[in-house]
């Protein structure tokens, strides 16, 4: 049995042991598979990702976590956009070649993170969130990361790695050990994705130069 199969089986087992709902298990498993596929530049990351988003939206909406449910709508739109973009301008490859972030993109992203964190954090504080600014920072960074992923930008992994590190600390603070463990797996996959995308980008550039 491969390492990936072991990880998936472990997640399902954790869900069963902790009496997690079916949506919890679907969300965790599809989330993990989606990130793993993205790291491998596999277009199936998008349909799997949409299942993950829908599962989380239903779960959050059912328990009246409307802020989190709203974020899933944003992720849904960015995921559909990414699905289309990855399949355009492929230059003979299975998916669009990776590129580096433009300076203007990073220049715009930084104030969005700062302002978005403050605004979203203030809103979350009115809902009684115990860590509003950290929750908001993770949410805004996730949106930026998904945007860059959708546009096939290498630096999406830098943002996802930041999200994963912050999320591990956030969920440990909230005593959600299992969730923190899931994000630790995300961190490993995201780090691998960064190096894999770098290698593939170098290979494509070398091939183009030749």
List keywords for this structure.
single chain; 0% strand
Provide a short characterization of the protein structure.
With 210 residues, the chain is an all-alpha fold. Helix content is 79%, strand content 0%.
List the helices and strands and how they pair.
Layout: H1 3-17, H2 22-39, H3 45-62, H4 66-86, H5 103-126, H6 132-150, H7 156-173, H8 177-209
Helix pairs in contact: 1-2, 2-3, 2-8, 3-4, 4-6, 5-6, 6-7, 7-8
In helices, the fraction of residues equals: over 70%
Q: Give the total of domains.
A: 1
Strand content: under 5%
Structural class: mainly alpha
Describe this structure in words.
This protein is mainly α and 210 residues long. The chain has one domain. Helices cover 79% and strands 0% of the residues. It has 8 helices and no strands. Helix 1 runs antiparallel to helix 2. The mean pLDDT is 87.
């Amino acid at each position: 049995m491969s390492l990936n199969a072991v990880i998936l089986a472990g997640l399902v087992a954790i869900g069963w042991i902790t009496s997690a709902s079916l949506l919890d298990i679907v969300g965790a498993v599809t989330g993990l598979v989606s990130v793993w596929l993205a790291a491998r530049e596999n277009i199936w990351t998008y349909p799997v990702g949409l299942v993950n988003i829908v599962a989380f939206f239903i779960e959050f909406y059912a328990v009246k976590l409307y802020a989190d449910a709203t974020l899933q709508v944003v992720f849904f739109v960015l995921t559909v956009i990414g699905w289309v973009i990855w399949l355009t301008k492929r230059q003979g490859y299975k998916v669009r070649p990776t590129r580096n972030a433009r300076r203007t993109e990073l220049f715009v992203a930084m104030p969005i993170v700062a302002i978005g964190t403050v605004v979203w954090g203030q809103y979350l504080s009115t809902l009684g969130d115990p860590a509003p600014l950290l929750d908001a920072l993770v949410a805004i960074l996730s949106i930026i990361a998904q945007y860059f992923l959708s546009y096939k930008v290498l630096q999406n992994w830098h943002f996802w790695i930041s999200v994963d590190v912050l999320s591990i600390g956030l969920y440990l603070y909230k005593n959600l050990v299992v969730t923190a463990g899931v994000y630790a797996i995300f961190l490993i996959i995201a780090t691998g994705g960064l190096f894999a995308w770098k290698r593939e980008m170098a290979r494509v550039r070398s091939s183009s130069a030749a």
